[in-house]
Amino acid sequence: MNQVIRHELHARVGAVAEVIDLAPRMRRVVIELAAGSPPVPWVRLAVGDHVKLAFPDASGRLNLPAQPGVRPAPGEPRPVLRDYTVRAVPDAAHAVFDFVLHGDGPASTWASNATVGSPLGVLGPRGSRVMPGDRPRYLCLIDSTALPAAARWMEEAPADAVVEVAVEGPAETIAALPTRANGSLTRVEGTDGSGLVAYLTGHRPHPGDLVWAAGETSSMIAVRRAAAALGVSREDLDVHGYWKQGVANRDHHAPLED
Ligand SMILES: Cc1cc2nc3c(=O)[nH]c(=O)nc-3n(C[C@H](O)[C@H](O)[C@H](O)COP(=O)(O)OP(=O)(O)OC[C@H]3O[C@@H](n4cnc5c(N)ncnc54)[C@H](O)[C@@H]3O)c2cc1C
Questions:
Q1: Whose CA is nearest to atom 34 of ligand 1?
Q2: Are 5 and 130 in contact (CB under 8 A)?
Q3: 30, 141, 142, 184: which has the fewest Cβ within 10 Å?
Q4: Ligand 1 mean position, distance from CA 208 (Å)
Q5: Could you say which of 3.40.630.30, 3.90.1640.10, 3.40.50.80, 3.40.50.10330 is the CATH number of the domain covering 131-243?
Q6: pLDDT in tens, the chain (258 residues)
Q7: 99 lines ligand 1 (CB under 6 A)
Q8: Where are the domains of the chain?
């Protein structure tokens, strides 16, 4: 059972402090929070920690909920929100996010145009789910959107554990990961999860190894089915749909098959 640490919910305003191109279509944005904002929480091994980032609407106005977690009343402007992994929190005033520039949608468009000073909202996280630190091997099967989380696995998994990352995605979105003695990053071919399934089948997990997977929802369904067919137990499997082809702002709390 993973430990869950609850956090007080905050809606913060921030602005871009730095933009770094990690790959032709993977962009790091460092956000400086407005003075007096509560820091973004940072918990080791909570590799899936994410916030809702709020982007300016079509008129350029940044709408934040009056109270975090409360829906705006009818007629009030709706915040434009998307989920992003907390890649790093260098200090209490900053947080780091890595964006895939996929070319469509308010988040990707915002990140493509971000320059120092561009405003942004940072909501949450509600809680941190601390992953188990006692596994001999972590097999991370991902697309580019989960590279920030995979980078955290590389940095935060115990030193004696093996961390294998297989990533399926366009070459231009694939940024280098931090290295570690027992770590590897393999780019697999495919667009529908088939490359990840082939990797899983060829690098069969042993009982006790953790298979952690995140990426496009249909691909993740394929990964989950393949893992089940290989006999991976529910305790050894953690699969997340981070986005869905053709669907804007998919709710990742919805069951994968919805
Ligand atoms: C817990 C969690 C953590 C996440 N962490 C990250 C992260 O750190 N970095 C990151 O880049 N993404 C991350 N994502 C994925 C990101 O939230 C989605 O890709 C989101 O849909 C992007 O919003 P958008 O406004 O750009 O596009 P949307 O308005 O949501 O979608 C517009 C269109 O673009 C398509 N689309 C959305 N994302 C992609 C994509 N990656 N590639 C190709 N087409 C796409 C949609 O299918 C839709 O047709 C995370 C998602 C979750 C649930």
A1: 104
A2: yes
A3: 184
A4: 31
A5: 3.40.50.80
A6: 689 999 999 999 999 999 999 999 999 999 999 999 999 999 999 999 999 999 999 899 999 987 767 777 888 888 999 999 999 999 999 999 999 999 999 999 999 999 999 999 999 999 999 999 999 999 999 999 999 999 999 999 999 999 999 999 999 999 999 999 999 999 999 999 999 999 999 999 999 999 999 999 999 999 999 999 999 999 999 999 999 999 999 999 999 986
A7: yes
A8: 3-128, 131-243
248 Cβ contact list (under 8 Å, min separation 6): 105
Architecture of domain 3-128: Beta Barrel (2.40)
The ligand 1 atom nearest the CA atom of 83: 17
Single pTM value for the model: 0.97
Secondary structure of residue 154 in the 3-state scheme? helix
Place of tokens 């990053």: 185
Q: Are strands 237-243 and 210-216 parallel, antiparallel or unpaired?
A: parallel
Q: Which of 4, 69, 64, 70 is nearest to 34 (CA)?
A: 64
**Which residue has 């529910």 as its token pair?**
234
